[in-house]
Amino acid sequence: MDNNNRRLNNDQLLQVLTLSKDATAIYTSENIVIEMANDAMINFWGKDRSIIGKTLEDAVPEFKGQPFVKMLRNVLLTGITDSGEAIPAETMINGNLRTSYYSYEYRAIKDDFGKPYCILHTASDVTEKVLGQKAIEFALLQKEALEREQSLNEELQEANSELENLNKILHLSKENLSQLNIELESRVARRTLELVNSEARIRNMLADAPVAIAVFSGRELRIESANKKILEAWGKTDNIIGKTLLEAVPELVDQDFNNILSQVYSSGEPYFGNEIKELIEKNGKIEEVYSNFIYQPLKDRERKINSIMLSANVITEQVKARKKVERAEEMLQFALEAGNIGTWRINTLTNELKSSPILKQIYGIDLVEDFNFEKILDLITEDCREKVSVDIKNAIESLGNCDISYTLKRPSDEQVVWVRSFGKMVKDEDGVINALSGVVMDITEQKQDEQRKNDFISMVSHELKTPITSISAYVQLLQAKSKNNSDDFASATLDKVQKQIRKMSTMISSFLNVSRLESGKIHLIKTDFDLEELLSEVVDECKLTDSVYKINFECCEAKIIHADRDKIGAVISNLMSNAIKYSEKGKTINVHSEIIDGLAHVSIEDEGIGIKEQHLDKLFDRYYRVNNQQTKTISGFGIGLYLSAEIVKRHNGKIWAESSFGEGSKFHFTIPLA
């Protein structure tokens, strides 16, 4: 037979339906519900197909008081097959209660765990046979009586007459039995055709199943069938059907699967594998294939193992992804340890705190000591404690994140250190956001370096202010003298020198403000003033000093704000200075103000070189500058926008930028009205 045309026999695929050759019925549940009954069985009961789905007692009420329902329940409970030959049963046939004789078998059908879930009932009507046997037995008795009593001729003749009648009955029974056999053969033929069609449907279903399935027959483990999924997992085609497993997939020779299959065949016990790795050759190279599988032994009619079914769920991608995550977690842990970064997690429902050993070292806490979030707050210095608590509370309530720098006093050495902590709300295993998780690092040295740098900048800026002031005074004297002498060249040159002096003064003031801002020494002197008037002053000054630019500003109604006038003026001057600095001469700068939702909104738009999108979020960071070919010749230290952002922020306002590269930029800030 061509290996490609081999088919699973009925014992392997349809064990339940092929156990019966005569009248057949299937029952479920302890109520003995009729799930299936063929025509022969229904005829035995003298009913029609409306009984399907009813309990046996409801369908055949004459069985009440007879032992059959109790016997069926016992089979379903124990799983032990019950059978009998020529058992009498009273059934209602054509309205008459008649005793018939049946040979039967009640067989429990079990699931993979050996638990009965239905009963297969097969039976054959042997009434005529029993009656014939009884007639024979009766004739034998009569014969024996005749031999004992030769004188009883009359009785013998009578017995002979009865025997003759019984023979006629037997003849009729034989004819009826012959007719029944013909009908049975016809029904068996129809049933066989149905089973073949059903088998074809099952084969098609298994072939396209999302689970890898194969059947190995005999101890040599010959591949009897294999669906698309298993062929794909092995990297093979269906020409392996009919070969042994090791012939079809030779790379399995040195792996343990053949031994496991042999053990399953011998023991009759299924084998479960979880995330088992196979080395399979695909396209000329060995690949790792991971799967969860079961080797299930299959038995024939005599309950002997004749094959093994493999059912597998290929999970190669899931396993590789998980291992990749595990490696990434290992690398992350290594990076955290190398960077001396501690980790923490606060359960927002229980306030429970989990932390790494590095965090305890940073905080100066004994590694074996248990502590909670409240103890962490106690370690934070009093000037930072409330801010830390508020920032964490805001992160939890908004389901957002926090970035906090603060000082704490370590109990181990009484040292005050700076730490920076990042936190973010995360989900638990059930997908519920109920934990704030993050990292912490010691930034004491960084803070000390920043303080030393700020001190240096502050000192240098102070030292430069005096000579710059003197130079500015001398230049003003020279300007006055050159004008008196009508020296236009000297006057124009001194104007340029004075402009550069103002730039340097502004730069020095910015450095001083940065130093004061970061040391907490910058103070806001707030008053009520008209923002529109301040805008007009700054714009007029820019028109005088940078007359080559067209600056548009229309003064509107008064906008009274409560703020530090000098600091807000510095913000406007810085934004105007940037618009001029990054625009070509002759370009237009538009200044606009309006009131939106109780906020004074100022925008300054230029036609300059513009800013790429990836730089917009970083523009207001300290010392950040966009470095490209167009900005190389433009002076600056990246502190103007940083100072402007800090000033606006301290006024409870907001500052941001919009830009398209090559098409100019538009800066905005808002300040609450008084």
UniProtKB/TrEMBL annotation:
It holds the Pfam family PAS_3. Residues 142-183 form a coiled coil. Residues 459-674 form the Histidine kinase domain. Residues 402-455 form the PAC domain. SUPFAM superfamilies: ATPase domain of HSP90 chaperone/DNA topoisomerase II/histidine kinase, Homodimeric domain of signal transducing histidine kinase, PYP-like sensor domain (PAS domain). It is an enzyme of class 2 (transferase). Its EC number is 2.7.13.3. Keywords: Coiled coil, Kinase, Membrane, Phosphoprotein, Transferase, Two-component regulatory system. The keyword Coiled coil applies. It catalyses: ATP + protein L-histidine = ADP + protein N-phospho-L-histidine. Transmembrane segments: none annotated. This is histidine kinase. It comes from Pedobacter fastidiosus.
